Amino acid sequence: MKRIILASAMLLAVVACSDSNSTDSSGNEYSCNVSRKANTVAMNLKYKGYEELRTVTFDSNGENPYYTVKRTFPTEAYAQGECQDEKDDGYYKDIQCYGKNVVLGEPAEDDNMDYYEDYYKRRCDKYDDQYESGKLEADYRKTFGE
Fold first, then answer.
1. Number of domains composing the chain
2. Beta bridge partners of 36
């Protein structure tokens, strides 16, 4: 449970960022992009050895949205622990784990693409400030011990 709480804190801090690519003063790469295509809204975040791709995909009628999040962790050991925590938690309908990756999926709650695009952009804006202030780095170190 402690691992989930720390990972959740990290993910909340990391997940949202602006449509930007940056390099911090110590050379650590940070990027976050929100994109929208015909039936998909996605947010792709990269920070150091962590990557997260959140996607909401709608069927051809613009209905039945499905949410997935693919998390790539700095180490396979951390990913395995996170995978087990997700399975124990039982929140997500679909859970796949391999190597450094944990892929989670479930039906999405809202059926409006504009909602998800706006949501991802607002989160990006909010947490871009955390990157600039150094909080993102602090959360990363606290979560992954680096």
1. 1
2. 41
